[in-house]
Each structure stands twice: as structure tokens, then as C-alpha cells.
Fold each of these.
Amino acid sequence: MATAELLTSLYGQQHRICPTPKADLSLVLSRERPIDLFELERLCDAVGWSRRPIRRVRKALEHSLLRVGLWRHDPRLPKLVGFARCTGDGVVEATVWDVAVHPLYQGAGLGKQLMVYVLDQLGELELDRVTLFADPEVVSFYEAQGWELEPLNRRCAFWYSP
């Protein structure tokens, strides 16, 4: 199978290759590749999040408007190294939750690429407003990408459709 065909078969039609500084590292964003719950749990452990019961995580994913994985490409077994999900009505508003990039992959602009991909996918739904909640130590990351902080500058930020 050709590379393009292989990537489409593994990650779906709407996948996106992430540029990386390492030529031997291939990373792919996908909203179509299913998220393995145990891989997601390992990613959450790596970023220091508290554990949630698997059955509740499964239910949250099932009820999400959008689920995006950032995968280290391997034709045999891609590895989940980043994740984000969104909830919402799918018409007017959405909220971004659970954005994570494995610490070994942080600092190379992958979080920004993940958020751009998320907003592009939500843009296809023609949403007018996207909100997110972030821990105080990462709010500046979103602010640097053009998110507007809520009036008290705490945890909530907004993105408005141009």
C-alpha cells in the first residue's frame, strides 16, 4: 500500500501530518482513529492527571462531539502521544476539554498544532464560539494562540469564529 493510502487506512480521510524537527519522527493528527482507553490512561498518567474510572472515560468519549488523537506513526502499532476532546451542541458552541501532549513530545509546537486541528475540525461544523477550561499554569499557552481570557483571567478562555 502507498504511504498516503496507508495513512488514510490507519487515520481516516481527515488526518493531518504534523511537521516535526526530527526527520525520523512521523506524527499524525486524527479524529477518526479510535482512541484506546488504556493508551489514553497511560497518556493521562504521563501528564500527571488523576485517574478516572475507565467506564466513565468511555462514556465521556462516547458523548463527545469531537475526539482527536495525536499519534506517533508506526504502520504496525501507532502510539497515542496527544489528545483533545470537545463537547457541545454541534451547531453554535463547543467546549474543549482534556488537552494533553505526552511530556516527551512537549516543546516542539505539537500542542499548538493539536489545537489548530481541533479548531479546524470544529470550524467545519460552522460553530460560532469555542470555550475551554485550562489549569492556571497553561492559560498563557492558549492566550499566546489568540484565545481571549474570561474577565477574571482565571481558567476559562474563548475563541470566536472570524
Note: Strands lie at 16-18, 27-30, 66-72, 79-88, 93-101, 129-133, 148-149, 156-160.
Amino acid sequence: MRIRAFDDLVLRVLMLLNSPDAEGQMTTQAIAEGVATPYNHVSKAITGLRRLGLIESQRGRRGGVRLTDEGRRATVGAVLRALDDREDVPDCRSPKGDCVLLPSCGLRSSLRFAREAFYQELDGVLIRGVGQGPAAGPATLTLAPAAQRPAS
């Protein structure tokens, strides 16, 4: 399962805001520099995160963005699930019309279950754990290289 570039950006913003470097709050410009992404993309991510209640922002001279308590308690799975606006994983439609196999397709439901399993696996990974680095404890996400993972 792959996540979209915007989802990746949202997670990086959350991780940065949770890092010790954030010192409470950061400006959108500082976040853009911190995640090496253009300001306008980060601004859109901030708007989405604010809409989800994961961050709060304050305008003005002493303004900035910071994680809410809900943002710290959120899981990576919940954040990705909230951002996912796709009904189906595969794109069953094209400019020429719907896939001819659509009425009897069994793959779509299997892919939906796989997507949900992906999110459920990430439901155990807290935002407050992923921005802290290796010393954060068991909530950090560490994947072994594919060759070392047990076969399922």
C-alpha cells in the first residue's frame, strides 16, 4: 500500500510539530523549511490538519501552529484514514467509461479490506511517538527490511 504525496507531507508536518525542535509552536514558513516542501503545499496541509482538529493555529506576531492534545493522541492509521477520500483503491473508471468487469469484480472488496488492514496496523503508531526519534519507546514505527520480515 502506498500513501499519496499529500498524506506523506501531512505526516511529516505532524512529526515536525511533535519534535523537540518545535518548542511549542512553529510558523508555517518554518515548517515548510523543516520538511523541505514549498510553503503553499504546507499551508494546504495545515488547513487540513486544523480542520481535523489535530493542530491549532494563531495568527499574528506571536502566532504559529502547534499540535493539539488530540493531535498528540492521534494514530498514523487514523490520520491516513481521515485523509483518504477514495471510495475504491483501484481506479475502475477511465475516460472511456467504467471497467467492463466492474459488476462482478471481486478484487475491489479485497483491496478495500487490505487498505483497512494497512490502516489498522498503523492504528498502533501514535503521532506523539513518531516525531521523537529512536528513544521514544515502543510507539515508534520501525520496519525491518523486507528480506528480514517473517513470511505471512
Note: The chain has a mean pLDDT of 80.
Amino acid sequence: MLDLTSTEVAGRIEDLYAAPLADLETHAQGQPPGMLSALLGMHDDLALAERSIAFHRDRLAQLVHTERHIGGHEVSHVLDCARRLAEAVAVRDVQAKAVSAVLQSLGRAPAPQPSPDPVPGVPAAPALPAPAASAARSR
């Protein structure tokens, strides 16, 4: 199963509902909770996780810049930022997996194929008679 980005999820939602995401968000606000609002919420959570990854990645790059001195105080900031980055990646991966599974389950199923008709002119084989039960006792 492929993990989708928030941009890909937005495109899949738009394809599924045949409308732009902004219109779908407006429409969902006036409706009771349902699949559309759930998908939009999952999309928002995925987008937030992606923004968090970008922020913490950039912050970590600043903290470990080659011209920057790293002392005891800075190490705690580096560790905290790395931990937050790891958490954001984990959240993104879970959200992407969940929304991918939901979107995949909402795909259109192919129409059922009709069962093949028996070939005309060929009689069906008669059923074999069941074997008779033996009246003799086993020893």
C-alpha cells in the first residue's frame, strides 16, 4: 500500500467527490459528520504532520549548522528537536497509511461478471446414487 502525501490525498478526495477541495470543505461544514468530513479531517491531520516535519527538519539543520558551536545547552535543544521530528514523521506515516486504506476501500468496485450459462445441448450429468449403508455390524 502506497503512502500518500497530503497533496495526493487532496487530489484523490477531489476525484472521489468530483469537486474542488475548497468547495468540499465548505459543503461539509453544513452537513452532519460523515465520510467526507472524516476524509477532510484526515487530510488536515496529514498536512499538519507534513508542515511539522518541514519545520523541525529546518530547525534541526539550524541547530547543527557547521559554523554553530554546540555546547551542553545546545545539545538538549538538538535532542528535543530530533525527538519532535521523529514524532512528526511517525504521525505522518500513520495518517498516510490510514487515509490510503480508507481511500482504497472507497474505490469503485468492478461490476460483477455474469456466471457462464451451461452449454446448450449437453445434458447435465446425472447424480450418482449414494452408496447403501451396510447392515452388517463391524467387529
Note: The chain has a mean pLDDT of 82.
Amino acid sequence: MKPIGDSNEDMIVLIEAVTSIKNELLYIREYFHPLLKGEIYLSGEQVCQMLHVSKRTLQQYRDDGQIPFIKLERKILFRESDIIKVLENNYQRPIEIKRIL
């Protein structure tokens, strides 16, 4: 086995491999969240994307007590299970429209 760095091609391959690993780690950090006692905690921005609402609307939901949240100093977190529960509790079936012949 020859030592790494004997040629420019070796360095290019090494840099590409390191860049690829870096990109994978950034993806994992962005999209995979560690569980804490089996729970996934989401940021306000993630909840806004999930519900397709603005930050102000999410703030109003919090103020009105519609969505539970956790406040750690200045950081607001939401349990994913709480968000799903709120969605399920507020689900409304479509109204059946009967045709009049």
C-alpha cells in the first residue's frame, strides 16, 4: 500500500471523499433528530413547515393554548407526538353532499 499524497490524483480523491462524508453528516444533522425517552422534539421552524403556517400563527397557537410546548430558557421546543395528537383531535371528516335528483 502506497502512502496517501504521492500524487495530485490521490489528494483529489481524498478531498472528494472527505467532502462526501461532510455532506452526509450535514444531512444527518439536519433531518435526523435524536430521541429523548422515545420522543422527537421539533423546533418552531420545523413545526411551521409541518403545519404550513407562519411563525406568527404558531405563536398564536401557543398563546391560545392550542399547541403544547416546552420552553427552556429562550428556546421553544415541541414534541412531535403532541403535534400529531393536536392534528388528530382537530381532524374533521368531509361533509357528504347528497345529490338531489
Note: DSSP finds four helices and three strands in the chain.
